[in-house]
Amino acid sequence: MMLLSSLVGTFSMIYFLEKDGNDYVVGKVVSTLALALPLMFSIEIFNERKLFNKWIPIIFGILFLTSYWYFLEIENKYKEFRKFQITFAVLAIVFHLLVSVAPYFKKGNIESFWNYNKTLFLSILNAFLYSLTLSGGFCLAILAIDKLFDINANNDWYHNIFFYKWQLQYCFLFGKTSNS
Q1: 3-class DSSP state of 154
Q2: Cα–Cα 20 to 30 A to 39, which of 6, 19, 31, 89?
Q3: DSSP 9-75
Q4: How far is residue 175's CA from residue 173's CA, in Å, rounded to a whole number?
Q5: 24-48 vs 55-71: helix axis angle to the nearest 10?
Q6: CB of 46 closer than 8 Å to CB of 105
Q7: Which of 134, 135, 133 is nearest to 157 (CA)?
Q8: For residue range 58-70, what is the model confidence (pLDDT) as tens digits?
């Protein structure tokens, strides 16, 4: 579920940028899938504890994301858009904090909790460093080709590389921590 939402979210964001941010349905899809990444990751970690049937948290997560998408209103008016930004930021913070608490939901050793969060934080920094280096190299390569051969590369390439960079960062982070 994480990889599917990550893949669909990346291509939705690229499509959203090509439409100059005017397609509100795609904007709703992008914001919902951006929240789906940490939520589905925390559900996966929560399922490793085997406290419930594995489908109960998955169904709960899908129902939550579906209701979020259904009731989400992204308006162009400043007051409503500000409401969307605050709601999205609060939910993103809650879901990211849920990732750090999910393995120790019922019980757990406090020292192993802090070791897990230290490993998670170092994985985030490591993923950020690798994806920043990779995307910077791609951007410099496109710039070099553009200047050497006078191709006049479109600026959309840089936007696409930026969102692929965050895609790689999430995949690297989730791949490293789920195997730990």
Answers
A1: coil
A2: 19
A3: HHHHHHHHHHTTT--HHHHHHHHHHHHHHHHHHHHHHHHHTTSS-THHHHHHHHHHHHHHHHH----
A4: 5
A5: 160
A6: yes
A7: 135
A8: 888 889 888 888 8
Q: What is the mean pLDDT of the chain?
A: 79
Q: What residue type is 147 in one-letter code?
A: K
Q: Please report, as a single letter, which amino acid is at residue 140.
A: L
Phi-psi region of 20 (alpha: psi -120 to 50; beta: other; left: phi over 0): left
User: Among candidates 37, 31, 39, which has minimal Cα distance to 2?
Assistant: 37
Which has more pLDDT, 66 or 51?
Answer: 66
- Contact indicator for 45, 38 with CB cutoff of 8 Å: no
Q: How far apart are CA 116 and CA 103, in angstroms?
A: 9
Question: What are the angstrom distances between the C-alpha of 140 and each of 92, 116, 134?
Answer: 31, 36, 10
pLDDT bucket at 103, cuts 50 / 70 / 90: confident
Judged by average pLDDT, the poorest of 26-30, 77-81, 106-110, 157-161 is: 77-81
- Cβ atoms of residues 156 and 7 within 8 Å: no
Query: What one-letter code names the amino acid at 120?
Result: L
